[in-house]
Each structure stands twice: as structure tokens, then as C-alpha cells.
Amino acid sequence: xxxxxxxxxxxxxxVACAALRNRVLKVSGYRLYCLDGVNKVAxxxxxxxxxxxxxxxxxxxxHEGHECEVWQGxxxxxxxxxxxxx
Length: 86
Fold this sequence. Notes:
Layout: E1 15-20, E2 23-35, E3 41-49, H1 52-62, E4 67-72, E5 75-81
């Protein structure tokens, strides 16, 4: 029996692929932009996630207390207001 092999595409910024027993798992690249008080980008981060929902969960965990946008390429996935309300 052959061992299971895992291959990762070197350009993980956009798409990482893994081959495991004739199955291909695709992971998409998302950008997370945190906004300042006048809706200008204050910081940016890459997120690797299986789908939109996972990318939103990661953004929520990483940037609680900020207003953020999650993008996949030119597509706006979500605008998140994670600021604490007083």
C-alpha cells in the first residue's frame, strides 16, 4: 500500500491544493482589511480558508473590536462591524 502524500501549491497566496487519496482540497485566499474611523484601510492581512463562512469566522476571531472587510479577489465577501458597543 502506498503512503498518503500531501502536496501544497507554492503560490499559497491565492490557492493551495492538497492531494490526498485522489481527493483535491482547495483553499482560497482572502484579504482582510481593517478600517479606521473614516473608512480608510488601517491594516491588511491574508486569510486562507475553505469557504466564505470560515474566512468570516477567522476575521471575527482575529480582529474583534474593529470594523473590517473580507475580500476574495475583487469580490466583497462581508463587511463586519466587530466594534464593542458601549
